[in-house]
Amino acid sequence: MTIFHKIINREIPADIVYEDDLCLAFRDINAQAPTHVLIIPKVQIDSLDGLNSDHKHLMGHLLLKVPEIAKSLGLTDGYRITVNCGEDGGQSVDHLHIHLLGGRKMNWPPG
Ligand code: AMP
Prior knowledge:
By secondary structure, the chain is α+β, with helices and mostly antiparallel strands. The chain has helices spanning 3-8, 56-72, 86-89, and strands at residues 16-19, 23-27, 35-41, 79-82, 98-102. It has a single domain (3-102), classed as HIT family, subunit A, CATH 3.30.428. It is built from three helices and five strands. The chain has a five-stranded antiparallel β-sheet with strand order 1-2-3-5-4, covered by helices on one side. The chain is globular. The site of adenosine monophosphate has 11 residues, from loops.
């Protein structure tokens, strides 16, 4: 069980900005931009590598929520999403999550 599971179960607090039956979105505790939100599925999936064809609807749902949540947070000038996967990808929590970053101009390439 990860810390995100505890957030889903309300065992630890989080600044939740969106929730439905499939996903939860909350502010990252260590924000890397003026707006930094994590969008996670409620079911446990370790990472992108843990996906299979049963997750098509769920992953489509998560991605479709991105512009909706971005708009609700006032990100009218654009934003970036990132999904870190595995050690080389910089993933530190083994529960699949989409980083939604905005409120400043993003750099490219990422570090
Ligand atoms: P990643 O490094 O891609 O696995 O991203 C994990 C993210 O979770 C990091 O940006 C952390 O700052 C964030 N994080 C860890 N614990 C919490 C927490 N309790 N509440 C909100 N964000 C968290």
